[in-house]
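Support request, priority: normal
Reporter: lab tech (M.K.)
Component: structure prediction queue

Hi team, I submitted a job for Nicotinate N-methyltransferase 1 from Spinacia oleracea yesterday, and the status page still shows it as pending. I've pasted the exact input below so you can check whether something in the sequence is tripping the parser. The sequence length should be 374 residues. Please let me know if I need to resubmit or if it's stuck on your end.
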Amino acid sequence: MSPEKPTTTAPQAEIDETSESRNQARLAIMELANMISIPMALNAVVRLKVPTAIWSSGANTPLTAAEIIPLILPNNPHADADNLGRLLRLLTTYGVFSEHPPISGENMRRFSLTEVGRTLVEGDGDGLSYGEYVLQHHQDALVRGWTLVDHAVKGPTSKTPFEVANGEPAYDYYGRSEEMNVLMQRAMAGVSVPFMKAVVGGGYDGFDGVKRLVDVGGSAGDCVKMIMSKYECIKEGINFDLPEVVAQAPLITGVTHVGGDMFKSIPCGDAIFMKWVLTTWSDNEVKQIMKKCNEALPAGGKLIACEPVLPERSDDSHRTRALLSGDIFVMTIYGAKGRHRMEEEYRQLGISVGFPHFRAVHIDYFFTILEFQK
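Reply from support: The job had stalled in the queue. We restarted it manually and it finished. Here are the results:
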């Protein structure tokens, strides 16, 4: 046998680091490597109540960082307007603030709110904002979980990165902290109310003819209350959640608060509504939940689920990025096999538990209404 010849590798062409493509590549990776600056800067301006201060100053009048400082940190001699201006300038590049040129004789930039920034104003609309959602996402315990995202790949994936970092699942952790639990409730309400206004405002007709509506995971009952206020045909509402959750729910005319476990049984109704419930569970767990819903519905009854739904193809649009980043958030914090799913995946899950009819209604860029009918 003749000895093996040593393998040779063809010489690679030397990379031209002065080329446009290499310059752009280095810029892109530097932006990605420093991307943590963006959510942390956003968290900082929300904690400092900067959006509310700008809005409350009157008609969203552009202000300099030096003019904002006394509004957010009165009588604080250590407040640094220069550092605040740096945060605002970064967030301007991501559409949170608008930057205006200095007034004649001044040398400081002025900032006002964009439509994106307006979502962070406290007391806007129903007294809620997306600000709590920002703060909820950046608490210390959650940030500790983010440093271990690779665990979701290396496994075992019975534990989320959050649980590995903090010693217990996220919902258990929240349950032991009243402050975190309250922030979670306000964060979910701040996101839910604008969406529910779109649902009951004519964007969806699936509640027509429903007489008994069950809201699974309804928390304080806000969603079922909003739906019933629009649809007079609904004579009875059931707000179904964990016993400790509904124990804190306020009295609502026409609504009965029922405590229980959705994996064991769900109250009967003509229609079952749920919002942002299925996302945090694995496929097998979703099947269990949907099967219990099916058992609680009559022939022709429907399950109406509002969930983030992934597009079939990936692109660099704001919508796709928001949905895919939310998917990784679920994987990291709530369930290593919980996930944002695609429309066809939901259709197949429904068929597997006895829902032969399915339609998806798009009235929101983040949430999709998924209707499963027996």
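The chain is about 45% helix and 15% strand. The first strand starts at residue 63 and ends at 64. Let us know if anything else looks off. Ticket resolved.
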